[in-house]
Amino acid sequence: MESHRPGHRLALPALATLVALASPVAARADGNPGYDRPGLGFAPAVLQAGDVSWEQGLPDASRDRKDGVTSTQYGADTLLRLGLGRSVELQLGGSPYNYLRQTGTGAHYRSHGRGDSTLGMKFALPASGAFSWGLLGNVEFTDGARDFRNPRRQYLFGADFNWQWSAHNTAALYLENVRSGGRDSHLLAANDGYALTPTLNGFIEIALQDDTDGGHGSRAGAGLAWMLTPHVQVDASARHRIGGHAPEWEAGLGVSAYFGH
């Protein structure tokens, strides 16, 4: 049977947040460096040696329409982070359950299964005053169910640059390159985050991208992250296509937990 896998998403499940860059001082004082969800990019800070965090989509979803067929996908995107010390952390990602529905022009297709697994390393580089930055590299394997795996192994390299303008306002720039099958796709995202209250943070973002087929697109979004406790965050976010090759809609609900010393 022909595969009905939806269009390739440039941002991988192992990717991240910029809203956590404005995390409350109380959480940071407790040793929590912030989370990599929601949003595009990642927090340019790593866990201390032996610390663990778990970030879970409840779910994350995307919708796209092509040639009269509407594809809607839901995924339980999961990211586990382990601090290794020396400004390095190990990341294990995946999507243990996905659901795909396609409708339109006589088509009616449904599928479910797990997605690909990712293995990555994040590095926090030396900060200077209000500026901090980090690097992320990972590999995405082709071990998911047929409708939810990439045709070839993918290699991601990302860099996140953060400027803390004030105690309440943070700006960030995220650059990403994904290589698969000898071709590269790119993503450039800009983000502005604001601490609305000591425990509630909001952000807006805009992104430009191109894919391995030469298509270009843009999208914009916003989100919120609420620190229930210094160790637990819940989030909600959404993005919409502005133009070109990009998912029509992306949205997500999630929870993240920090397990420190």
From TrEMBL:
Record-linked Pfam families: Phenol_MetA_deg
Q: Which UniProt keywords apply?
A: Signal
Check the UniProt entry and state the signal peptide residues, or none.
Answer: 1-29
Highest rank taxon of the organism: Bacteria
Q: What is this protein called?
A: Transporter
